[in-house]
Amino acid sequence: MHVSETRRWGPLVLTGLAAVLLAASTGLTAAAKPQRADPLQQQVDAIHDTGAVGVFAEVTSPHTRDSARAGTAVRGTGRPMPHNGRLRIGSATKTFTATVVLQLVGEGRMSLEDTVEQWLPGAVQGNGNDGGRITVRQLLQHTSGIPDVEPEIPALNSADGYRAERFRTFTPEQLVRLAIRHPPNFPPGTDWSYSNTNYILAAMIIHEITGRSWAQEVNDRIIRPLGLRDTSTPGTFPSIPGPHAHGYAAFGTGIGTGIDVTTLNPSMAVGSGSIISTTHDLNRFYTALLGGRLLAPAQLDEMTTTKPAPELGVRYGLGLGEIPLSCGGSYFGHPGELLGYHTWGGVTRDGTRTAVVYVTSDGGQDTQEAMSTLVDQELCRTRS
Question: Which pLDDT tens digits describe the chain residue by residue (384 residues)?
Fold first, then answer.
């Protein structure tokens, strides 16, 4: 969910000389260690070597499912990372939310050109913010100009804030009010800026149209039909159920791996970052989405039609980023971060190959680049 997560997308997308240099440095690092036959394990080890507490990755193709892990599930112990452990997927949640909105569009219950004011009268008004000028498309595409609420949430921004407010419950309406205390970043449709508030509003619109909560719709439209048994919408529940590694955050201090932040009421991230899942379930979701099982062709085209997102250094559609592949072409995916859990996942355009990796600590520039490299190399790899 963090804004900091989004600003790393640019360096994550390495092409040309930068990609060659990164590949070369990764190769030197691997060469200094005993060689292993499994390239996925080598890449996971390379991520762990950047300072991550724990790393887990899974890669799938039509006839294979490979995974690798490194580090520990709990800092200071010898407990290995759990196979198919659950994690907070952060902003990868946005792809689920956009999918539900586009399903409603396909059912004729709303339009991407509807305004926020049309569905949520008075919700976005004041300090120059005007929901009557903002469309649903602009919410999903991050071109609305609405300020991001994340800086207004103490639990996400400092260790003291986390300790004081990790159990606090927010309503979506409260979150929107916090965000629009600030003026818009730009007039709607004139620029691009990542804002979690956009997807909180999308969740509110889903509720208004269906009469059912965002969580109910995500469960009934995506999680249950796909049999994602380890995926959940936790609401205000602060713990991660089932097997999981602990998450750690340093809150930008750069001091070690930070404090244990596994416990968190994720209500501040409804629609934008609250889902709990696993690498396996995320891979299955991406396969179904790009394989056309969740959206009709017209809506999938809308989702995957991208425009430049200069803040990220990539292109962005409706809840999905489009990232160049070093072997040519591109893939779709979305990073995720919610306090101590960072994930990067991607899927080829035809939905046949997926790769998801996560770490359980903040991870600096080197960690993020190594995660991006893993996804790129695994999606480029020919797998039988």
Answer: 543 443 444 333 333 333 333 333 344 344 444 454 699 999 999 999 999 999 999 999 998 999 999 999 999 999 999 999 999 999 999 999 999 999 999 999 999 999 999 999 999 999 999 999 999 999 999 999 999 999 999 999 999 999 999 999 999 999 999 999 999 999 999 999 999 999 999 999 999 999 999 999 999 999 999 999 999 999 999 999 999 999 999 998 776 778 999 999 999 999 999 999 999 999 999 999 999 999 999 999 999 999 999 988 899 999 999 999 999 999 999 999 999 999 999 999 999 999 999 999 987 889 999 999 999 999 998 644
Per DSSP, the residues of 346-378 read EEETTSS-EEEEEESS---HHHHHHHHHHHHHH
- The whole-angstrom separation of Cα 74 and Cα 53 is 8
Query: Is 174 exposed, middle or buried (CB count within 10 Å of its CB: 0-12, 13-18, 19+)?
Result: middle
Residues contacting residue 320 through CB under 8 Å, at least 6 positions apart: 95, 98, 303, 304, 306, 332, 333, 334
* 222 CB-side CA count, 13 A: 34
CA–CA separation, 109 and 209 (whole Å): 7
Residue among 61, 67, 91, 232 flagged as catalytic: 91
Q: What is the reported pTM? A: 0.91
Classify burial at 265, counting beta carbons within 10 Å of its beta carbon; exposed 0-12, middle 13-18, buried 19 or more: buried
Look up residue 158 and give its amino acid.
S
Active site residue 4: no
CB 281 within 8 A of CB 183: no
